[in-house]
Amino acid sequence: MADVELQVARQNASLRIQVEDRLRQAIASGRFKPGQRLVERELCELLAVGRTSVREALRQLEAEGLITSFAHRGPVVSTISYEEADQLYSVRALLESFAGQQFAENGTAEDIAELERRVAEFAEAAESGSGSRLIAAKTAFYECLMNGSGNAFVKQMLTSLHNRVTLLRMTSMTQPGRLKHSVSEIQEISAAIRDRNGPKAAAACKHHIEMAAKVALDYLRKSEAGKS
């Protein structure tokens, strides 16, 4: 499913932001795997951009925790431990529950209509089998959820967590049977928000994150056990 298109079109958003987005997508889809070294020259060729743009993007992704730089080795795709992931998902469940409740209680009709479109796009992406389309659709859903909450600070904190969980998102969604449940879970979130049921929306958001965490943590547990 690592079918990310890497070449960047020089238009609209700044070149640096486009390069950041392409690299995030490549990491999220598994095109670049945890522990893989990222060579500037190779990235320049893949992305069809100059070294300055690549270096700026790598610095941003390092700030987000997606990339780690080592002396004498350079940048590599970060790995995430079981303990780190457990903590990350716990905080994310709290924040997204709050965001979902705030959206249900305060979101506009336009916000709700946009959320329903994003849910439909995610369901279509799940049917398509395209890894890049799936990641883009899920990212758009979360962006809409955060915007609909109307809380800029929650959005800021969740964006940071989402960037970090990028390392696990495709792992979680592609485990056998998980994607079908993921679609159903975000449909439940959307329905609760549409019904203006704040507590139900919060519970649906919490359930969705807990189920994703269960799958991702189980994968990490087995992976770490296999290395010991």
Describe the overall structure:
It is a single chain. By secondary structure, the chain is mainly α. It folds into two domains: 15-77, Winged helix-like DNA-binding domain superfamily/Winged helix DNA-binding domain (Arc Repressor Mutant, subunit A, Orthogonal Bundle); 82-227, Up-down Bundle (Four Helix Bundle (Hemerythrin (Met), subunit A)). The protein contains nine helices and two strands. It has helices spanning 15-29, 40-47, 51-63, 82-106, 109-128, 131-149, 152-173, 178-194, 198-227; strands spanning 67-70, 74-77. Strands 1-2 form a two-stranded antiparallel ribbon. Strand 1 (67-70) and strand 2 form a beta hairpin. Helix 1 packs across helix 7 and helix 4 runs parallel beside helix 8. The longest helix is centred in the C-terminal third of the chain and has 30 residues, at 198-227. The two termini are 28 Å apart. The relative contact order is 0.14. The mean pLDDT is 89.
Structure at a glance:
With 228 residues, the protein is mainly alpha-helical. It has helices at 15-29, 40-47, 51-63, 82-106, 109-128, 131-149, 152-173, 178-194, 198-227; strands at residues 67-70, 74-77. It has two domains: 15-77, Winged helix-like DNA-binding domain superfamily/Winged helix DNA-binding domain (Arc Repressor Mutant, subunit A, Orthogonal Bundle); 82-227, Up-down Bundle (Four Helix Bundle (Hemerythrin (Met), subunit A)).
